[in-house]
Write a structure and sequence with these properties.
This protein is 56% helix and 0% strand. By secondary structure, it is mainly α. It folds into 2 domains: 50 residues; 56 residues, no CATH class.
C-alpha cells in the first residue's frame, strides 16, 4: 500500500481498499499500514468514515427479490422502445442453433473438402485390355 495523496489514488482503488479493510481481507502488514494511514492522514480518514457511513446505509436496506416477470417486462419495454431491433421475436431468434452444432458441421464440411482435394487423381488412362499396366518385353513372343 502506498502513501500517495488521496487525489492521486483512483476512487475505485480507494473504495476497493476500504472494502477489503471492512471485510477483513487485508494481510496483517497491510492492515497495520492502513491503520497508520487512518491515524496520520485526516483526509484519508474522512473519506474512510464517509465510505463506512454509505456502506452502513446500504447494508441496512431490506433485501428484495425481483418479480418473476421482471425480465420479460424489461425486455418487452426495450423491444417496444427500440421498435423491434432488440429482443425481437422472429424466426431467427427462436430457431437458433447452438454454436457447437455449427462448429461441428463446419469441421465435417472442411474435412470432406480436404479429402476431395487430396484424393489421388488418375494421371493416365488405364488400358481396359491390360488394367495392370504390365508390358511384355519387346523381344518376347507375343503368343501365350
Amino acid at each position: 500500500m502506498s502513501a500517495e495523496p488521496m487525489d492521486m489514488m483512483e476512487l475505485s482503488e480507494q473504495d476497493a481498499l476500504f472494502n477489503a479493510y471492512l471485510d477483513d481481507e487485508l494481510s496483517e502488514r497491510e492492515r497495520d499500514e492502513f491503520n497508520a494511514r487512518l491515524r496520520d492522514d485526516p483526509e484519508f480518514k474522512r473519506a474512510y468514515d464517509g465510505f463506512v457511513g454509505v456502506m452502513q446505509v446500504v447494508r441496512a436496506l431490506p433485501f428484495e427479490f425481483a418479480p418473476d416477470d421482471f425480465v420479460d417486462k424489461v425486455q418487452g419495454r426495450i423491444r417496444q422502445r427500440s421498435r423491434g431491433r432488440f429482443f425481437a421475436e422472429n424466426f431467427l431468434t427462436q430457431a437458433r442453433l447452438p454454436y457447437e452444432v455449427v462448429a461441428v458441421v463446419m469441421m465435417i464440411v472442411m474435412a470432406a473438402v480436404y479429402l476431395l482435394m487430396e484424393a489421388p487423381h488418375d494421371a493416365e488412362i488405364v488400358d481396359v485390355a491390360n488394367p495392370s499396366g504390365w508390358q511384355a518385353p519387346a523381344d518376347a513372343d507375343p503368343r501365350p
